[in-house]
Amino acid sequence: MQADYLAGVWAHHAHKEYNILEPGDIESGINAANRIGDDTLMKEATGRAIPERFTHGTSEQRMRWFTKGLKSGDLEGCTQLFEVPYEDL
Length: 89
Prior knowledge:
The chain is mainly alpha-helical.
């Protein structure tokens, strides 16, 4: 989720500075985060998700943290990931 947040921060600043994002780029980033969530990958591989085995975040968590980074552009916001109770990630 940290990498997802930082990817969002990068996209925020890259677009602000260089106007590089094209229509559909944000949706593609969110869709990628959705596809690589632990729950989604486990369901595709085994037919079920086992939360105790998640290592990189659910699809929803990964999409949420990417979006937070994208909207805020705040690098310091990444520290919130280390302060939020697990169930609130």
